[in-house]
Specification:
Blueprint (H helix, E strand, L loop, with lengths): L2 E8 L8 H12 L4 E7 L11 H11 L1 H4 L4 E4 L2 H10 L3 E5 L18 H14 L2 E4 L8 E2 L19 E4 L8 H9 L3 H6 L2 E4 L5 H10 L6 E5 L3 H9 L3 E4 L8 H8 L4 E4 L14 E4 L5 H13 L1 H12 L4 H18 L1
Helix pairs in contact: 1-13, 2-4, 4-5, 6-11, 10-12
């Protein structure tokens, strides 16, 4: 059986955000075709917060140099992993997730000083990868790949849905405080019947908790912490609207997951989101630099015609079927392996 190595910075059982579920959903189907193995940072690295995991993972790649050479193909979901493959001359494909240069908005103060190095790595990955895929906007030299969705959570009746939800990393780039400011402007009756839930972890947690207190929303906002992917999708399916106010994105996995259970979204029109979230159909888009009242009005517009928005969201979710996406990826990989 063809041996394929998958590179992901953190374990898909502990990582939180789009990449973990993306890889996990593909794994179910790719494992039917290949002998899959993973190289991720050991779980005990999760507690290390003073050094970027990107740097640690790059060092880990060098330590695993000889192991890397034992595989027929490498699938990389990590810039650092792909960069190591490029340096080592290994056959690899790379999936670009989100921002090409995330260190430009790093939570580490010195991250901005490494932007040129990261740009160099991106250029080298683009030149050396056998195929470069993008989850975000289509770009020259990159092939579009959709977020694969695979779960057993069912679409909930409207009577079982209430509230709004955000899920993701609690970091500056997600601008969750703008969601809180907008939510605060909603009429009291809407807030009282629709609690805002925030799922995830990150360096902004304390700041967001203080913002909730400042806006006097303590009775209306709930922090859920980290949830496993199935539990998160179940929480989304019980919500009325998924909310996102990011300053940059590719196409967030979590919006596709929300669509798959018929939950519409209100989001900023950044990255590749407008390609799938059609304003007035399966959700509402607002400008990147929106006014709080505009975001609040978008939420109310979805609520006013909720059946329409929900049905359109559910239809949009069908295009993210993980089995079909995996089959297309297998065709590409097999063609590359035969050509080697």
């Amino acid at each position: 059986m063809t041996k394929v190595l998958v590179l992901v910075t953190n374990s898909i059982s502990t990582s939180y955000g789009g990449i973990g579920p993306f890889v996990k959903n593909l794994d179910v189907h790719l494992s039917e075709y290949y002998d899959l193995e993973y190289i991720t940072l050991p779980d005990y690295f999760d507690n290390i917060t003073v050094v970027p995991h990107r740097f640690l993972y790059l060092m880990y790649m060098f330590l695993n140099y000889f192991k890397l050479r034992k595989y027929d193909m490498v699938i990389s979901h990590s810039h650092e992993g792909a960069y190591a493959c490029a340096l080592f001359g290994l056959p690899f494909i790379h999936v670009f997730h989100g921002n090409d240069n995330p260190v430009s908005v790093s939570r580490f103060w010195y991250g901005k000083y490494f932007t040129s190095l990261f740009n160099h790595a991106t250029k080298m990955i683009s030149e050396k990868s056998l195929i470069g895929y993008t989850v975000g906007k289509e770009e020259p030299g990159r092939k579009k790949i959709l977020n694969p969705i695979s779960h057993d959570v069912t679409k909930k009746p409207f009577s079982e849905r209430s509230g709004f939800i955000f899920a993701g990393r609690l970091e500056k780039g997600k601008r969750i405080e703008l969601i809180l400011e907008s939510y605060a402007l909603l009429p009291s009756d809407i807030k009282n019947s629709n609690k805002l839930k925030i799922a995830g972890k990150g360096s902004q947690l304390e700041f967001l908790q203080e913002k909730v207190n400042e806006l006097k929303l303590n009775d209306n906002v709930e922090f859920l912490g980290i949830l496993d992917n199935r539990s998160l999708i179940d929480q989304i399916s019980k919500s009325k609207i998924f909310l996102m106010a990011s300053g940059f994105e590719g196409f967030p996995m979590v919006i596709a997951e929300a669509f798959s259970v018929g939950v519409p979204s209100v989001s900023t029109n950044v990255g590749d989101i407008p390609s799938f979230l059609k304003s007035g159909e399966n959700g509402m888009l607002v400008e990147k630099e929106f006014e709080f009242i505009d975001f609040a009005n978008a939420i109310q517009k979805v609520l006013e015609n909720y059946e329409h928005f929900s049905s359109k969201a559910f239809e949009a979710g069908k295009q993210f079927d993980a089995k079909k996406i995996a089959q297309d990826l297998v065709k590409d990989i097999n063609t590359l392996i035969k050509a080697e």
